Amino acid sequence: MVTYHDAHILDVVGPLEVLTGAKLFLPQGTVPYDVHVVAQAAGPVRTTSGLTIEADQSFAEAAEDARPIDTLIVAGGHGTAQAIEDRELLDFVAAAAGRADRVVSICTGAMILAELGLLDGRRATTHWWWCPILTKRYPRVSIEPDAIFVRDGNIWTSAGVTAGMDLALALLEEDWGHDIALEVARYNVMYMMRPGGQAQFSASLLAQKANDGKIAETLAHILDHVGEDLTVTSLAARACMSERSFARKFKEEMGVTPAHYVEMARLQAARVALEQSTTPVDAIALRSGFGNAERMRRAFQRHLGVSATDYRDRFRLTARGPEALPT
User: Which residue of 35, 148, 237, 310 is 20 to 30 Å from 192, comparing CA positions?
Assistant: First the structure.
């Protein structure tokens, strides 16, 4: 596991907890993975949270370690911008990737792989916020902005933060089989395969990107009034703009059409209602602005790959208390 100052702590410990957690379900004494955390120097490494992680080896020490590398994982985080200018880190990752069976990036760790050319001509993903940056800076990489994780040959890349745990679960399944991976997923209260992609989380987060005051106000209105009339005509009138100007400015600011964003906002509102209440699906569809359950079902299938009813059932299964965990 490659880390550096101001890496995101969950990018490091999240995947490692999933991978090493397999020991709970393997024969006593079995060590599923021999984990080594490497950094500029052995010892404490500060993360974005202010907490520190203890690196086992420096890059120099790890480079001299002759043992084979099964899986090389590169963490992401706010420190990635500095990491891609760290020649020692880049040299180590390049050399280690050349002798690793699998190369994995978590979140913005994909920027490091891309900087080395390891993603050229490949499909990849990263945190949704950074996808446009990765696309612009590394045009030879085929970015899949809505994927939770992407595997292209022996290179795996994940979306932001907790998506690294989803990717680790897939690695675990490949190494130790479906049953072990399922037990680890249940123990960590995770989906074995999370429905949908990054888009399911981004309605409120995406609203933070707006720089234009009128667009920002419109986004806030959409999020607070998902059940109301949110056509381009009504939204443009609210923003005191022509429909054409509003639609063009909205797309420039947000990267999606007004209609697409409205559906994202309504989907987000419906998800929260399904997760946190016993309100009938028909009523949730009406309150969320879908009009009827069938229209909401199609939206859930399109964005999340499951029906609204199945989504509620899956969430409840995952959100159970201690009875959901192995004894």
Answer: 35
151 and 287 in a single domain? The answer is no
Rg value, the chain, Cα: 22
- For 279, the domain range is 199-317
- CATH code where residue 225 lies: 1.10.10.60
CA-CA distance, 87 to 118, in Å (whole number)?
Answer: 16
The tens digit of pLDDT for each residue in 287-318 reads: 999 999 999 999 988 877 778 888 887 655 44
Contact, 111 vs 136, CB < 8 A?
no
DSSP summary character for residue 111:
H
Residues 53 and 189 in one domain: yes
Just list the catalytic residues.
107
pTM across the whole model: 0.67
Instruction: Give the pLDDT confidence of 226-255 residue by residue, as tens digits.
Output: 999 999 999 999 999 999 999 999 998 887
Res. 325: pLDDT tops 50: no
Split into its structural domains, the chain has a count of 2
The residues near 249 (Cβ < 8 Å, ≥ 6 apart) are 212, 214, 215, 241
Tokens of 8: 């995101």
